[in-house]
Amino acid sequence: MTIGDRKAYLVGGGIGSLAAAAFMIRDGGLPGGNITIYEALPVLGGSLDGGGNPEDGYTLRGGRMLTTDNYECTWGLFKSIPSLVNPGKTVFDETVEFNQKMKSHSQARLVDRNRAVVDVTSMGFSMADRMELLKLMMASEPELGTDPITDWLSPEFFTTRFWYMWATTFAFQPWHSAVEFKRYLHRFIKEFSRIETLAGVKRTVFNQYDSLVRPLQAWLADKGVNFQKGCVVSDFDLASEAGKVVVRAIKIRRAGKSETESVAISADDLVFFQNGSMTDASSFGSMTRAPAQLTKQESGGWTLWEKLAEGRPEFGNPAAFNSSIPESWWESFTVTLRDAAFFGRMEAFSGNKAGTGGQVTFKDSRWLMSVVLAHQPHFANQPADVQVFWGYALHPDRIGDFVAKPMSECTGAEILHELCGHLNFDRRIFAKAICIPCRLPYITSMFMPRALTDRPLPVPKSSKNLAFVSQFVEIPEDVVFTVEYSVRVAQMAVYELLKIDREIPPILHHDKSLEVNFDAAIKAFK
What are the E-state strand segments in 197-281? Predict the structure, then answer.
């Protein structure tokens, strides 16, 4: 059978599946018309989303940090994807040019309870903090095992300026995995010495849906890829062939139809499955309504992985990630404005023009709230008289400082009330604002303490034609909760199943650089 006779079926329309389709076409020679992507939602992109409109309010569930010092596979892919707004340039080209003009250098990374900008030239470490952090960084992953970060760092560490900045940049909680925390310290060690300014952070021209997903989707569509939206894959028919698990059929339910379809899979066809979802069961509120408190029972987003993993330990252990919403959730909010007053006040307060400052974290807030003012427009269709900003809180289960209820029970209007309290702004500044809160019960589920075997390999050793492409797959040394992780695992899975003899961009080991380690050490001892 030639490559032109093979077909590929991708379950889930997130960045992992889109990247896998692109690698099959670009590097494997598989015709785009032989690739089908099934997505339950009416839109592709998975967690890299961006929606809404200026009349009803824009929505962003989250945003992922990018750098050009890492993200080797991501930029390798987007060097091949044409820009939608800059003819003759790739997405990579336009992103680099944009960041040369809009350089990050936060001047108000932390703000205290008195609305004073905190001096963050020092990380605030004691000698005991430094020794504990060094011990954690030097420990092996088997030594760290399933320990939470709190097993390795004392309570005082979580009151340092470093922790407030690192935790809110990457969304870590003290009870999260020590292994994942260690991986971040090594992978992003260059950010350690500039975490107070976020100088290493790179941003896309628009939000990541408009700047990454839409161009990639357009390129795939031009190659003939078949997108099947509104399709829920409910099950796989599996068989055993020479000791290997083989997918023989995919069971599909289409929106508006009660019957289940069966799509036959030949022995030479390939199946890629996005197992698990960090934005599963997410829900939006409004200015007058708090988000609904959904779980996996209402969404079903984990069901298929749970079916596959039952009795097959090599397919992972989803229960390690989806069993404790109180430990894996936070809440975000997107604010749409038709009045420039807030942006003007924030730019004057922070000393940063929108798009150059990154997160402003209110470190003493009970919700641990942060806001980010992106360069405008942040949406491709955003009118010139509209501005959009995003924020989130790591402790939405706690009573607010200015609103006497947990964030989880707050409307958009009440969240703006809380924000005004921390900034000491007159609430009338948001008289025309639309704030849409979003509850994300599994947003940091990939950070939960887990054993090595809880995540499947991209292509499990027992699998013949099934690969896993998601944040819940094991890649040694790399870090979850990044676009890079999804793209890298997609490239690894495609190359293995199609037997592509081409090097995957290696992980850059900045943690082996004497200069980088010296800079980090100087920062740690300030």
Answer: 226-229, 231-241, 244-254, 260-264, 270-273
